[in-house]
Specification:
The structure holds two protein chains of two kinds. Chain A is α+β, with helices and mostly antiparallel strands. Chain A contains four helices and three strands. Chain B is mostly helical. Chain B has four helices and one strand. The chains are: A alpha+beta, B mainly alpha.
C-alpha cells in the first residue's frame, strides 16, 4: 500500500485515513457497528485507473446519480469515467455527471451485484474496453 | 473519515455526497434524450459528439501517464 499513489497532490492525511481491511471484511459490508464513516475503494482504481483522492464533485455526482458506493461500480465503468474526465480536460470542459451518463445506460444483474455502464449504440463516445477487469475483488482498503 | 474530510465528502446539510456503503437499490439509467439535459451538460455532450472518431478507451488511459495528458490526448484525434 505504501507504493500506491493515492492522492492528487501528495500525501494528504487530513481528510481521510487509509486503513487496511481485516480478513473478515467484504466490500458490501455496511458500517457493521463501527464508529465513524468510511468507504471502501479497490486498489486497482489507484494502480490501474489513475483515480486519486479526494474524489472530485464529478465522480461523487456520478455515484450519487447511480446510487452506488465506489466499489459497487465495476472497474471497467470507472475506466470509462476516467477516460471521459480526460477528454473533457483536453477540450477545456468541466464534466458533469449528467453529460457522462448521457453516453451510457446501466446494466444491473441484480441489486447485490456490480453496476456496469454500457455505451449507447450509435452515440457511444468511447470504444469499450476489450477485456473486463478481473481479480480486482480481493484488493481493497 | 477525518474532520477535514467532512468538508469534501458531505454537503452543507451534513449528508454524504455519495453512498459510502453498498446500496441495495442502484438507480437504473435508461437512454436520456439530449434535450432533457441541462444547458451545461448539453454543451459538454455536443462537443465530443463532433469528434471524428470513437476514442479507444485504452489509449486514453495511456495519456494519464504522460506529462501533458490533455495535449497528448488531442494528438490522438
Amino acid at each position: 500500500m505504501n507504493n500506491i499513489y493515492l492522492f492528487e497532490r501528495g500525501p494528504d492525511p487530513s481528510t481521510v485515513a487509509i486503513e487496511r481491511v481485516s480478513s473478515v471484511e467484504v466490500v458490501c459490508h455496511g458500517r457493521e457497528g463501527l464508529e465513524g464513516d468510511f468507504f471502501y475503494i479497490y486498489a486497482c482504481m489507484f494502480t490501474k485507473l489513475h483515480v486519486r483522492l479526494p474524489l472530485d464533485e464529478f465522480m461523487m455526482g456520478v455515484l450519487r446519480l447511480l446510487n452506488v458506493t465506489p466499489t459497487q461500480l465495476h472497474p471497467n465503468s470507472w475506466g470509462s469515467l476516467q477516460a471521459f474526465r480526460l477528454i473533457c480536460r483536453a477540450l477545456y470542459f468541466s464534466p458533469t455527471p449528467e453529460s457522462f451518463l448521457y453516453f451510457y445506460v446501466t446494466r444491473l444483474r441484480d441489486s447485490r451485484s456490480w453496476v456496469s455502464l454500457v455505451g449507447r449504440p450509435r452515440i457511444s463516445l468511447l470504444d469499450s474496453f476489450t477485456q473486463s477487469f478481473k481479480k480486482f475483488k480481493d484488493g481493497f482498503f | 473519515m477525518l474532520p477535514a474530510g467532512r468538508l469534501l465528502y458531505y454537503d452543507d446539510e451534513g449528508r454524504p455526497k455519495f453512498p459510502f456503503y453498498w446500496t441495495g437499490a442502484p438507480a437504473r439509467r435508461d437512454a436520456v434524450a439530449k434535450e432533457a439535459l441541462d444547458a451545461d451538460s448539453r454543451r459538454v455532450v455536443e462537443v465530443p459528439e463532433t469528434l471524428p472518431t470513437r476514442v479507444p478507451g485504452k489509449w486514453v488511459f495511456c495519456c494519464y501517464l504522460t506529462d501533458n495528458p490533455g495535449h497528448d490526448l488531442c494528438g490522438m484525434f
